[in-house]
Design goal:
heterodimer; A: 334 residues; alpha/beta; 11 helices; globular; B: 540 residues; Alpha-Beta Plaits; Fumarate Reductase Iron-sulfur Protein, Chain B, domain 2; FAD/NAD(P)-binding domain; 4 domains; 19 helices; binds thiamine diphosphate; binds iron/sulfur cluster; binds magnesium ion
């Protein structure tokens, strides 16, 4: 189900009073679940807190409130549940940093055994827990096609423990463990992994990428995933003002620029095949995305690129643009 | 003893008031849209567009007539400074405000909408002298405020320059008549063919508690050059006025118009329609310097009217017109070159501007007059208490819409003056500038333009040149409004707050920020498409 609404005003805002009110975004409705409620301790402008509310709210809607959330260790878990408080307004469990997919598999199996197949399982974690420490469990969950929607909130480093590099950290980014010093300052080129593509290689029913910059698109992908059974994977880019060195108010703009420059392509895949990629609406050079972030500050001196690394980042974006055919007009590609 | 953590009561994060982290506070503002700011009649354009886009056409029309009783007229003749100010130009092109106004005005006539009931009767009587846009606007607003109004007009019919200056192909008379009739039906007493020749008499008679002067500017400015007895030299004001007679003016096959303003275009295009084969506008400067609006020059050129730039009239004898050629000097001013050219023409029409006939003020000493225009204060009151003035006779931009604005302002001042109350100071909100928009959220949507009838039809008849928008087009056009600086409930702020600190109050009620939890990240302000959220530093 795609959460579309007629757009008579020609605007891309979350909703539109002239549009179809019955089909408006969950985030636009007065009675949205607010699964992650106020009072949590995420930083100002945290993309992960926003992404998690959008995802879990949509999943709750889709499953008529019957959801169990399994959370890996990380910022999301820490800022939402400092004992004895919780910001979660839904059933929620936390076990370890690396085992969320396995715990989720177990919860889903338990529900199945109890004949409560209507209770859906959503597992979630940061990029560190997903692409690194929990990766083995995740691959197993995919391979067995366990009935779990796994959501990775990718802020491109281990933020909760002080911004260490993960295998989702982009080349050149400054982290605590990839300082901007030496012959190749920041994170090195040619490392890291693309978990959405790896997930596709498992031939699971559904894989999608999304960001917090497009609420309707993110919700639509959650609804689509929830309409299916088996292992599903959603990879959401969530800017982190602390780790990226960006003003809190820029969180959404940066997510938008990541997509528009081509570094973060938006696509969906079913059973291992890409079914749709979102066209870039306002193409921008990678520079526009990188420059406002302090983690990339060392790429520039006096506003100009210091060496060819900016061009190499642009090449990465261009490769995505041609691989997913991101320019042009039509909405779908196959 | 148990470890600390396990003795705490389990509870919700709502106990944690993260609002204390805030260093900047978001709040919803009401900024002044640039269209509203530019409207000489002071219309709340954004508000009526917003009603129109919800198909609440009658409410939209009622919003317009709070400030301007002539939507159908102004939707045709106004030079729409609002559109020139519209922020949408930074996306693709301005909102076609004027064409939506016309749609609403025409619909009001068709559907016979009447004005809201006036305020309770005040018992005061006001005389309005001159039934042009300023006078009629003042009369309407005074009536709306509960006063008894009499309008005295020297000519045969009301309308002033709307009738005796603007050609029918720009303003069909049935539209003009309909909007004037609505004002008469509102209880305004209109006396035509009643020239007031002596203001002193009127004031001394004490028949009225206040007077609004709006006699316009109907005397053509002339210029001297040698002519022969058979040379026909006419003035544009007279030609356009005589167009309202059954007997139309006879101009001949070849007509020269002298001047570069809108009146020159009007009279040239009128001459063409009266059957002239050759119509030439003669102007001493260049096109860029022409005071006429660019689209009027274009429409004249489309209709086959020729324009000679950088020439002045030297003499006109026996149908032979001698023109002195000019050239621009280093500073861009036209200077005579000493060279001449000649052409044949059956008549010359002078369109060199207009003056006011201020004869009625002669026996009324103490009024301040400078450069042929009457001085007024910020309330539109002359130096004589209780005598107000507006429109083309006071030193100001001379457009119909400006006149409507003067009429409204004067009416409100007269009302305050009659009731002996202070006029409340109107608070002017800061401007909603284009830089405050988040343009990402607006798709490019091309303007729904009004079509023009074909050229052959245009040059032969006085039928209206510009057609109106259909309802669907007008609706789409109103929906192009960006709602600069004022919330239109797009839910962006509500949706993007990572702290769930924005409360949605329900359709039409907007939002409220819960400062107990708002951390002041500023995402709501950054992602507001129309720039209506303001961030201000907290006192810390
Ligand atoms: C086995 C184990 N190793 C290390 C940690 C410490 N730790 C807690 S959160 C975290 C980083 C989480 O990073 P990520 O998964 O990317 O989530 P983020 O905080 O960035 O949202 C680490 C290393 C742990 N809890 N468990
Ligand atoms: S460090 Fe980053 S991910 Fe963690 S709470 Fe702060 S903004 Fe969110
Ligand atoms: Mg992370």
């Amino acid at each position: 189900m795609k959460n579309t609404q007629a757009n008579p005003k020609g605007i891309y805002t979350i909703s539109n009073r002239l549009g179809d009110q019955a089909n408006r975004a969950v985030q636009a409705s007065e009675d949205r679940p607010n699964s992650l409620t106020s009072g949590h301790r995420a930083c100002q402008g945290c993309g992960e807190a926003l992404g998690a509310r959008i995802v879990v709210d949509a999943a709750l809607r889709a499953a008529k409130g019957q959801i169990i959330v399994v959370n890996a260790t990380g910022c999301l878990e820490v800022f939402s549940t400092p004992y004895p408080e919780t910001a979660w307004q839904t059933a929620w469990v936390h076990s370890l940093f690396g085992n969320a997919p396995a715990v989720a598999t177990g919860v889903a199996a338990a529900m199945e055994v109890k004949g409560r197949g209507n209770v859906r399982v959503l597992a979630q974690g940061g990029d560190g827990s997903t692409t690194d420490i929990g990766f083995g469990c995740l691959s197993g969950m995919f391979e067995r096609n366990d009935d779990v929607l796994y959501v990775c909130y990718d802020n491109q480093a281990y933020m909760n423990t002080g911004v260490q590099r993960s295998s989702a950290t982009p080349p050149t980014a400054r982290t605590a463990t990839t300082p901007p010093v030496g012959s190749e300052p920041g994170n090195v080129f040619g490392t890291g992994k693309n978990v959405p593509l790896i997930a596709m290689a498992h031939q699971i029913p559904y894989v999608a990428t999304a960001t917090v910059a497009d609420v309707q698109d993110l919700e639509a992908k959650v609804f689509k995933a929830m309409s299916m059974r088996g292992a599903r994977y959603l990879h959401v880019l969530v800017p982190c003002p602390l780790g990226w060195g960006s003003p809190p108010r820029e969180t959404i703009n940066l997510a938008r620029l990541a997509v528009q420059c081509g570094l973060f392509p938006l696509f969906e895949a079913e059973n291992g095949t890409v079914t749709r990629a979102t066209k870039i609406r306002q193409p921008v050079p990678v520079e526009n995305y990188l420059k406002p972030q302090r983690r990339f500050a060392h790429l520039f001196k006096g506003g100009k690129p210091v060496d060819d690394r900016l061009a190499r980042m642009q090449e990465m974006a261009d490769a995505n643009i041609s691989r997913f055919n991101l320019l042009g007009h039509e909405e779908t590609c196959k | 003893m148990k470890p600390f953590a396990t003795v705490l009561e389990v509870g919700t994060s709502l106990n944690n008031h993260t609002g204390s982290w805030r260093t900047e506070r978001p709040s919803y503002a009401h900024r002044l849209p640039p269209c509203n700011n530019a409207c000489p009649a002071g219309e709340n354009i954004q508000e009526w567009l917003s009603l129109a886009e919800q198909e609440k056409y009658e409410e939209a029309w009622r919003e317009i007539v709070k400030n301007n009783p002539f939507p159908a007229i102004m939707g045709r003749v106004c030079y729409h400074p609002c559109e020139n100010a519209c922020n949408r130009v930074t996306i693709e092109s301005p909102v076609g405000i004027n064409s939506v106004e016309r749609f609403l005005g025409d619909k009001a006539i068709r559907d016979k909408w009447a004005f809201d009931r006036p305020a309770a009767k005040s018992g005061k009587k006001v005389l309005v002298i001159g039934a042009g846009p300023a006078g009629l606007s003042a009369a309407y607003h005074l009536a709306r405020l509960g006063h008894k109004v009499t309008v005295k007009e020297s000519l045969k019919k009301a309308g002033g320059m709307l009738r005796y200056g603007i050609p029918q192909y720009r303003l069909p008379r049935k539209i003009l008549d309909a909007e004037i009739k609505r004002i008469v039906d509102y209880g305004v007493e209109l006396e035509v063919n009643k020239k007031v020749t002596n203001l002193a008499e009127v004031v001394e008679s004490k028949a009225f508690d206040a007077v609004f002067l709006s006699v316009g500017a109907h005397i053509a400015k002339l210029t001297e050059f040698p002519t022969s007895p058979r040379s026909r030299v006419l003035d544009a004001v007279a030609v356009l006025r005589d167009m309202e007679n059954r007997e139309k003016p006879k101009l001949g096959k070849r007509v020269v118009v002298y001047g570069g303003g809108n009146t020159a275009m009007d009279v040239a295009r009128t001459a063409k329609r009266l059957g002239a084969k050759e119509v030439t506008i003669v102007y001493r400067r260049t096109r860029e310097k022409m005071p006429a609006h660019s689209f009027e020059i274009d429409e004249a050129l489309q209709e086959g009217i020729k324009i000679k730039f950088l020439v002045t009239i030297k003499k006109y004898q026996n149908k032979k017109l001698t023109l002195g050629k000019m050239a621009l000097d280093a500073k861009g001013y036209p200077q005579p070159t000493g060279k001449n050219e000649t052409m044949e023409t059956d008549c010359i029409v002078l369109a060199l501007g207009q003056d006011s006939d201020l004869a009625l003020l002669e026996k009324f000493p103490g009024l301040e007059i400078a450069d042929g225009a009457l001085k007024v204060d910020s309330r539109m009151m002359t130096s004589h208490a209780g005598v107000f003035a507006g429109g083309d006779m006071i030193p100001f931009e001379r457009t119909a819409t400006t006149g409507v604005g003067h009429g409204k302002k004067a009416a409100r001042s007269i009302d305050a003056w009659l009731r002996k109350v202070e006029q409340p100071a109107t608070e002017k909100h800061p401007l909603a500038t284009a830089e405050r928009l988040n343009k990402w959220y607006y798709a490019e949507v091309s303007e729904n333009k009004r079509k023009l009838i074909d050229i052959a039809h245009r040059t032969k008849t006085f039928d209206e040149v510009q057609l109106g928008l259909s309802e669907a087009e007008a609706l789409n056009e109103s929906r192009r409004c960006l709602s600069c600086g004022n919330c239109f409930e797009c839910d962006n702020c509500y949706g993007v707050c990572p702290d769930n600190a924005i409360r949605k109050l329900g359709a039409g009620k907007g939002f409220k920020i819960d400062y107990d939890y708002c951390k002041g990240c500023g995402l709501c302000a950054a992602e507001c498409p129309c720039g209506c959220i303001e961030m201000t530093p907290e006192d810390i």
